[in-house]
Amino acid sequence: MTDQTQKQVLLELKDYSITFKTPDGDVKAVSNMNLTVRRGERIAIVGESGSGKSQTFLGIMGLLAKNGQTSGQALLEGRDVLSLKPRELDKVRGKDMAMVFQDPMTALNPSLKISRQLTEQLEIHRGFTARAASVEALDMLKRVGIPDPDRRFNLYPHELSGGMRQRIVIAMALLTKPKLLIADEPTTALDVTIQAQILDLFNDLTAEMNTALLMITHDLGVVAGLADRVAVMYAGRIVEEAPVDELFEKPAHPYTAALHAAIPRPDQDVDDLVVIPGRPPNLQHLPKGCNFSPRCPKVEDDCIDRPPQLETLAPQHCAACFHPFPRREELLTHA
């Protein structure tokens, strides 16, 4: 990595793992993850429920359940946030990195008006006076597309629609102008029209503020017009990472290809919808070899004997697979 590239690095995960202690034994939710996020970059983290996507970033934010433990490093501008004490982390969390949660009703305090929940961010993290915070918060409500913001500024969360509540949560996260914004399934509970509006909002505002965006989703279709790069997770590991166009055009890992095939298409009959056979593995009893081997259509003996490591297939494209799908150039060579 050149000095110039290193200066652009915002977040770097090194051998990052998360383990949960349970009465039945340890559960390794994330295993030896390595990921680099650059300033202003938009990365999608994709995978089925239970693949470790959300836990990865809850760990970085210091929001794991009490039985969760992190190891490795999570370097934010070279500073390991995993080693920070709670008071030190409070100064970073919300200011330098912020998170938008899937359900805005659990992210918003039902007993406080929207105005207080917005202005509090600015007063704590940016030292604004109450008056200045109100002016800034109202401006942000306009920018996230809240109609009649002056009136809605003094409403309670239950008085707003689901789409408006999600916009409020996004406004709260962006008010402090964080360097890193983590969005955890932010469009799942919204209808398709509102989903598109929210994704456009993320696109515009993160570009305007040069904020790096980590979008966590189980839907590969959501990321096509938003992400610069995609990391695909399965059973706590990254199994493929590539620029978004490359991933859609030339998926290398069978799991990525299966996710891609499972995206519903307008011209597709319901009976022709593709499903991935089987179920994700039990994280307490992972296969000896590749975690995807019990469900993989390309499984061979070596897949069962030992786990594959991420290997570079092309510039910025790597996959953890002994038998990746042939690249287009290879297909042409052997045609």
CATH class of the largest domain: Alpha Beta
The CATH architecture assignment of the largest domain turns out to be 3-Layer(aba) Sandwich
Q: What amount of the residues lies in strands?
A: 15-25%
Q: Give a quick account of the main beta sheet: strands, pairing sense, barrel closure.
A: 8 strands, mixed
Query: In angstroms, what is the radius of gyration?
Result: 21 Å
Class per helix and strand makeup: alpha/beta
| Cα shape | globular
Q: Provide the succession of SSEs.
A: HEEEHEEHEHHHHHEHEEEHHHEEH
Query: Considering DSSP H and I runs of 4 or more, what fraction of the residues is helical?
Result: 25-40%
How would you describe this protein?
There is one protein chain. This protein is of the alpha/beta class and 335 residues long. The chain folds into two domains: 9-96 and 178-330, 3-Layer(aba) Sandwich (Rossmann fold), CATH 3.40.50; 101-177, no CATH class. It is 33% helix and 24% strand. It contains 13 helices and twelve strands. The strands form two sheets. Strands 6-7-8-3-9-10-12-11 form an eight-stranded mixed beta sheet, sandwiched between helices. A four-stranded antiparallel beta sheet has the order 2-1-4-5. α5 packs across α6 and α6 (130-143) crosses α8 (162-174). The longest helix is centred in the middle third of the chain and has 18 residues, at 192-209. It starts with a helix and ends with a helix. Mean pLDDT is 89; it is low at 328-335.
Q: Could you give a short description of this structure?
A:
One of its GO terms (biological process) is transmembrane transport. This protein is 33% helix and 24% strand.
